[in-house]
Specification:
Elements lengths: L3 H20 L7 H10 L9 H10 L5 H13 L6 H6 L7 H5 L10 H26 L1 E6 L3 E6 L2 H7 L13 H10 E8 L9 E7 L4 E4 L8 H10 L2 H19 L6 H12 L7 E4 L2 E7 L6 E7 L2 E8 L9 E6 L5 E8 L11 H5 L13 H19 L2 H7 L4 E3 L19 H11 L5 H9 L9 H10 L2 E6 L2 E6 L3 H5 L3 E3 L8
Parallel strand pairs: 12-15
Antiparallel strand pairs: 1-2, 2-3, 3-4, 4-5, 6-7, 7-8, 8-9, 9-10, 10-11, 13-14
Helix pairs in contact: 1-2, 1-3, 4-7, 7-8
């Protein structure tokens, strides 16, 4: 006999599934995938937030399933703090009385914005002092007197805290990569005049490269000329200069002993992660779909292409094969012999303008908060390795070899779940919109709603759908006066032939 909790759980899922199919299913090919995602990621563990997330997705499609799950997860994490007394104390202006009396009940929040504002206020109050404490702990305070303060930020949070009121990229609240890049090339020091007597020089950033070269920046992030640097140095206490030079030497010596993974160790980490992430084992290219197999014995990475369920083409592309700093690409024909195509991606291809090899090989790495993966592994696979593989398999050699030519597309929004398989299901948004444009080119989305769906388009309704189908190339969007109009796009023909593939949504440019 089923327990009461199981019956309650099943009932919630059934109610939400019935709702999403009645409401969203008429509008989206991916309604079942969206529903499955929300069920899997309900943070309560018993689906008590599921119906709210489903309703929010239906009534305000500007918010993706990922955004809903993240917000509800934060709400769940702060439940213990959400009491009527706490809300009164923090002087929160609740938009309705339900929130004041039942703040723990998610149904008290009529829309995404109301819940977001509540969670934001609670987190701000609870974490402000904590963040300040953590930020101060993320720096080395090297010198301080009544006027001057010298710190070396060792964490991004510490850099943002002591770099506040400046335009330094290393203290930008939405660009942590800049702090990482500078920290890998040398030492950052912040010099602060607590009296503010030096105008835009009351906060100074000094970047001292490992070889000793210096760059000084004022609060506006303008580089300071040598004459001004000499004048500033003459005003600084000698004890501060001594502390600065001593700290640079200390960290310089530590850098010489930088703890990096060997290439073999890093390849093992790559293999362990890529084989646990389903979305990374398949790649769609202009020559078709290829899948990855990693031999546990010799560690060879092989991408293979099937025709009628038979593996007929293989390309070996093992990163750092035999400890070499390269990726050899070798083609195997159906007889198991090497074909007449091979290429090697050398060290220059294994870095980007934003990511150095020393950065992703560092033994101590931060972990991605959404996936159990180290930063270096993630950035190498998504921004270096997989784009290199796709670049090779897109080539005419493989299109001619397989005898097929596909069109590929990538959504500009990383949270888009649309794939646009052909043929679309009858009655879905895709089927209705494309059929409408075949008969009525250069029409707006508002005209489509009025002519086909029978009502005006609500503001921002199905924004993700219109954006994704444009990205796919099934339709194209052009400006006509003050409006945007749609027609069939360059990939429409490939789509109707079943030869339109979405590339892996996880990787792209940094």
């Amino acid at each position: 006999m089923k327990g009461l909790s199981n019956i309650l759980l099943e009932g919630r899922i059934e109610d939400a599934e019935r709702y999403i199919h009645n409401a969203v299913g008429l509008m989206s090919d991916d309604s079942q995938e969206i529903f499955d995602y929300l069920v899997k990621n309900d943070p309560s563990g018993n689906q008590k937030y599921l119906m709210w997330m489903v309703k929010m997705y239906d009534t305000d499609s500007g918010f993706s399933p990922n955004m809903l799950q993240d917000l509800v997860g934060r709400f769940h994490d702060n439940l213990d703090r959400l009491t009527p007394a706490f809300i009164i104390d923090m002087d929160f202006e609740a938009p309705n009385n339900k929130i004041l009396t039942s703040p723990k009940n998610i149904d008290s929040y009529d829309n995404y914005r109301e819940l977001h504002d509540m969670v934001y206020e609670v987190e701000s109050i609870q974490t402000r002092k904590q963040k300040e404490t953590e930020a101060k702990a993320g720096v080395d305070k090297l010198y301080e007197d009544e006027r001057w303060l010298l710190v070396k930020p060792n964490s991004y949070e510490g850099s943002c805290y002591y770099g506040s009121s400046t335009k330094w990229c290393t203290a930008s609240k939405d660009a942590p990569q800049h702090f990482k890049e500078y920290s890998q090339k040398g030492n950052l020091f912040y010099i602060i005049d607590k009296t503010h007597e030096l105008g835009d020089y009351w906060k100074l950033a000094l970047f001292k490269e490992w070889d000793g070269d210096e760059e000084w920046y004022d609060r506006a992030d303008d580089r300071i000329e040598q004459g001004a640097i000499n004048a500033i140095r003459s005003m600084l206490p000698q004890a501060l200069i001594t502390a600065l030079d001593g700290a640079h030497k200390k960290y310089q010596e530590q850098e010489r002993e930088l703890d990096l993974l060997t290439l073999d160790e890093f390849r093992e980490k790559l293999a362990e992660y890529i084989m646990t992430e389903k979305g990374l084992q398949t790649i769609n290219t202009d020559s078709g779909t290829w899948k990855l197999y990693i031999d546990e014995g010799d560690g060879v990475w092989t991408w293979y292409h099937r025709i009628d369920k038979e593996i007929v083409h293989e390309v070996q592309a093992t990163p750092f094969w035999q400890g070499r700093n390269e990726i050899p690409f070798d083609f195997l024909n159906d007889e198991g012999m090497y074909g007449d195509w091979s290429i090697t991606a050398g060290p220059e291809s294994l870095e980007t303008d934003h990511v150095s090899q020393d950065a992703y090989l560092q033994r101590k790495q931060e972990r991605n908060m959404y996936r159990n993966v180290e930063w270096g592994v993630s950035v190498f696979l998504n921004h270096i390795y997989l784009p290199l593989v796709k670049q090779q398999l897109d080539k005419d050699f493989f299109k001619e070899l397989i005898g097929q030519e596909y069109a590929t597309w990538r959504a500009n929004s990383y949270v888009s779940t649309f794939k646009f398989k052909y043929p679309p299901r009858e009655g879905t948004m895709t089927q209705r919109f494309v059929d409408y444009l075949k008969q009525n080119p250069r029409k707006t989305s508002n005209q489509f709603y009025e002519h086909v769906l029978g009502y005006p388009r609500p503001r921002a309704h199905n924004n993700m759908f219109f954006s994704s189908i444009k990205d796919s190339g099934i339709v194209k969007m052009e400006r006509q006066g003050r409006q945007f109009v749609y027609s069939l796009g360059p990939n429409y023909s490939a789509w109707t032939k079943g030869k339109l593939l979405r590339t892996n949504k996880k990787y792209g440019a940094l």
